[in-house]
């Protein structure tokens, strides 16, 4: 087996791929295909690109149908599904609130009104996948940052599946997906990061094969506001940054898109209600909460 490691920039981070193959790999050609797959997702779903399909939808008049590529429609469908599944804890309609608290491409320093610009996407976004279009029934500022990276990982995975490689690990930032096992017969070892904003270190390792893992946390993307740290994760139920004592949530799922969005949903719900949802879905999930002594862990499934 030959081992090939590739990477490149995307979505303000980097995509990575480790491929084990039983044949010669054209690394340059494969890297180009992976870069194109990640770039296509970024080009459609970024809030940093004014001409992205997401921003076209955001700017469209209320009630007007907007033609969209199948990839972003797939993500919008998944976002609405997980929004309903979580009782609104995951909602992609928080774009204006994200900006009002100083995060994202449209960040501003104005004082945030918890109700400013927020409307639940699960009630106000209509999709028509058969005709490749969507429309809003009220002004919406959609933000796919809680699901698009995971979907990008799945597109990387689809590229390697198409090539027929027997063993690989792909990722973007903290979202990862694996297929098969390493030549030694072991699953891929993935480090779980300790949710400490001041340093990067592992708090544990999980083994991953034929599945995906994603982590949502309050420790990387945060800023000071009125003398206090606020997280980039918005609680759609309050229209304000999350403040429930959770430091991070890690989720295992068949796809990185679902793992990504579900980790955010469970982060918003907290260890109790989030634990109930995770148990009902039979998810492997790890909740890490802040505590005076450091961190407290609550695990379900493989993390128990």
From TrEMBL:
Quickly give the catalysed reaction.
L-threonyl-[protein] + FAD = FMN-L-threonyl-[protein] + AMP + H(+)
| An example molecular function term from Gene Ontology annotations | transferase activity
Q: Which Gene3D superfamilies match?
A: ApbE-like domains
What are the names of the required cofactors?
Answer: Mg(2+)
Keywords assigned by UniProt?
A: FAD, Flavoprotein, Magnesium, Metal-binding, Transferase
Does this UniProt record's set of keywords contain Magnesium? yes
Taxonomically, the superkingdom here is Bacteria
Instruction: Please give the InterPro entries that the UniProt record associates with this protein.
Output: ApbE, ApbE-like_sf
Please tell me whether the keyword Transferase is annotated for this protein: yes
Q: What is its EC number?
A: 2.7.1.180
Name the family. Answer: Belongs to the ApbE family.
The record ties this protein, via PANTHER family, to: FAD:PROTEIN FMN TRANSFERASE (PTHR30040:SF2), THIAMINE BIOSYNTHESIS LIPOPROTEIN APBE (PTHR30040)
Name assigned to this protein:
FAD:protein FMN transferase
